[in-house]
Amino acid sequence: MNTQPRIYVAGHHGLVGSAIVRVLRAQGHTNIVTRSHAELELTDQAQVRAFFRDERIDQVYLAAAKVGGIHANNTYPAEFIYDNMMVQANVVHEAWQSGVKKLLFLGSSCIYPRLAQQPIKEEYLMSGMLEPTNEPYAMAKIAGIKLCESYNRQYGTDYRSVMPTNLYGPGDNYHPENSHVIPALMRRFHEAKLSGAPEVVIWGSGKPMREFLYVDDMAEASVHVMNLDHDTYAANTDPMHSHINVGTGEDVTIAELARLVGETVGYRGRIAFDTSKPDGTPRKLLDVSKLKSLGWQAHTPLPEGLRRAYAAFVDLMADQEKRAAA
Question: S-S: 87 plus which of 42, 219, 322, 326, CB 3.0-4.6 Å?
Fold first, then answer.
């Protein structure tokens, strides 16, 4: 009989979920439960209820989410708030209904005010106005944190939340319009290199500063936080501010990032900036002192993470070409 906890990773095909599965397997876990979107529609409460009733889950990593960059958030605001709130509500509620005691909710650093003091501490949540370009997504993620806290307070569950900074790595979405900044830049520079384009134009001024975390580091941090004993987690959080930031504690300008991605890809043309496009939040650097005090810190430098991410991207493109030719 397998005595390991039965762990459900929601969103295992996504950037974060796939990394969590890799880390769990590397740590020896074999009792991992996954479902594709086609197999389980998480916005459908009846399907989620039947899944938890039948699978007898012990732990949940809630990494399923509708995500995207500035363009996607601006284009599909209703989908970003509705889909994320429905997924969170269904998974958390049905996990509780079926007796799941431990759950980890994965949020986003966009939950913090647009002009929050830097670096951003956990207690700055809801202390100011959100960034307008991703407000619907941020509101959904804030609701997810409060959902977990409310179930803890009323039902005595142990539902935790981690707030990662900007993530990148294997399993990312490289859509030219709907992806986040690193995969979008990687694809743009890669295509410019192949076509011999003399210039790559980047949205915005290049001045905003961002923090980036390699996704396998994020997954390790998630498992670390999930495995903290209850008293340690409770002693380092507050029932009404129970989330923990996950990041590197270092940031770069978008212009510096573009240069690094261009160098990683091997693009040798010019980099220009379209200042008519939105910049988003001026700076977003997380204070990660709480997580460090709990025994974990990031260990993959940005240049090394970009090399790994680009290698994964090249492999993905080659695989797509093979399938298209078949």
Answer: 42
